[in-house]
Amino acid sequence: MRSISTLRSTSDQAILRFLVEELIHMLNESGGNPIDSRDVLIEARGNGIVKRISKLHPPFMALEYQLLFPYGEDGFHLNIPLTTTSTTNKRNNVSLREYYCFRLHSRKSEGKTLHKSGRLFHTYVVDAYVVVLENNIDWYRRNQNTIRSDLYNRLEDSFM
Fold it and tell me: pLDDT tens digits, residue range 83-105?
């Protein structure tokens, strides 16, 4: 499935000129196999160079939801420090799930743009959920040998 967002008329260009200077391409290629991941392709308007970014790239959601993030705020990245009072925690960074839980939580000190955007907010929540699930599935896919060998070791221990 290929969905390309383009500006159709000069009035659309005038309305959306303040956003970003790239075109966003959403690309899902399956080829008969399950879709491994979802990529965003950014094509610069002037030179036509295409750059692929993953779901872990900081401006991923800002590029996908330009109306919710008109200033292109950075989103999740792998080096967000985890601040906790517990010293037993093995992790030093915030997980993807924790980041989106933080973003979706309503606070009095922040604006309500995200929560009052109606259907666009619902789409954002679903996309955030899918990104977290894809990240978990990717982890399981990368660590299959470790997971399976651990299961076999326990099974072997139970027979002895």
Answer: 766 666 677 788 888 888 888 88
Residues contacting residue 27 through CB under 8 Å, at least 6 positions apart:
2, 38, 39, 40, 41
Note down the domain range covering 126. 2-159
- Phi and psi of 51, rounded to 5°? -125, 135
Q: Is the dihedral angle over the CA atoms 115, 119, 125, 131 positive or is it negative?
A: negative
Number of domains in the chain: 1
The pair phi, psi for residue 158, each rounded to 5°, is: -70, -25
Could you tell me the sign of the dihedral formed by the alpha carbons of 88, 94, 96, 102, in that order? positive
Higher pLDDT, 61 or 5: 61
Residue 25 phi, psi (nearest 5): -120, 125
